[in-house]
Amino acid sequence: MKKLLGFIKKEFYHILRDPRTLIVVFGIPVVQIMLFGYVITNEIKDVSIAVFDQSNDVRSHELINKIASSGYFIVEENVHSFHEINETFKRGKVKEVIVIEPNFGQKLERNQKSSIRLIADASDPNTANMIVNYTKGIVATYVNKINGNQQLPIQIETRGRMMYNPAMKGVYMFIPGIMTIILLLVSAMISSISLAREKEIGTMEILLSSPLNPAQIILGKLAPYFLLSIINATLIISLGIFVFGVPVLGSLVLLMAECVLFILVALSLGILISTVAKTQQVAMFLSQFALMLPTIILSGFVYPIENMPLPLQIISNVLPAKWFIIILKDIMLKGAGFTFIWKETLVLVGMLLFFVLLSIKKFKIRLE
Q1: Most confidently predicted of 118-132, 145-159, 162-176
Q2: Is CATH 3.30.830.10 the classification given to domain 47-163?
Q3: Residues 288-305, mean pLDDT to the nearest whole number
Q4: pLDDT at position 367, please?
């Protein structure tokens, strides 16, 4: 028994002296509970909305001020025609447009009844449904406050309309996100293993003695996996269209071009991982587990980024998946052209250049 207790004591000392084990045992659970605790929520806050006020009277201003002061919504802009509503949604920031009918205040005073229309971006159906329900609740509170003890209470009818996904199909939300995760993880994994395999099986010396420079070696490693990933992307998009019925309202050529760009980003990220990983096992761990959790939680795939604390919103900006999901939804569901997604495209181009240059730099260090 003393020998066993001594052995257990020794194991405790060994664990306490190993920071990597302590990080796995205590650090990862703390990070996960903090992430899920802040991210997973059924509430909304600071949602950007637009207003189309066709009445522009005292009552309409009161209603908009009531909605804006609720803490759930921020009035981002005012639109002046129904034609502008679609353009506003395509820019990607506004999630709901509140349309107030003409003579809103006069109808309340004369007929005790008026109406507003709530138009929501339903490319994310769960969020759109919450936004509309929150707005209806605020309108109901406003009506109750005005009525007080009146014998003839006023009524404000709220009619909802879901843009881009009127049937509220969940696949419209999940298919673009799943496509992003598959392309990112598969492309990053296969490219990260490539250089790690060369180092692990001892063939790296052959590459080092070849006349190829680091950039040529990296490009040579990327080329076959790039072609395989293109086939993979085509297969995924075809399944989304023909099996799950997700539409492509925008340009298919633009969609494929953006997929090519994202694949290059994922492959370059995998190459970067392979330059720091000594074995295939480490490379696979980093490409799968280190990328999967942040991508699912912080990319906007499942949980709205607007609901997250500011630090997590900032962190989400460094994830390529966030920008690609926005691009996919804009092209496939909203029919947006390049003029609406050029900023997201430019971000991915910047990430591609950063990953490639950093990979070449770290690879040079290893060559010396």
Answers
A1: 118-132
A2: no
A3: 79
A4: 43
What are the residues facing 100 on neighbouring strands?
Answer: 53, 116
Q: Regarding beta strands 73-78 and 155-163, do their DSSP bridges make them parallel or antiparallel, or are they unpaired?
A: unpaired
CB-side exposure of 24: number of CA atoms within 13 Å? 5
Domain definitions of the chain by residue range: 47-163, 171-367
Q: Which are the contacts of 297, defined by CB distance < 8 A and separation ≥ 6?
A: 35, 36, 39, 303
Return the higher-pLDDT residue of 202 and 351.
351
Among 61-75, 121-135, 286-300, the least confident range: 286-300
Q: What is the pLDDT of residues 24-77, one digit of tens each?
A: 566 656 666 666 555 566 678 889 999 999 999 998 999 999 999 988 999 999
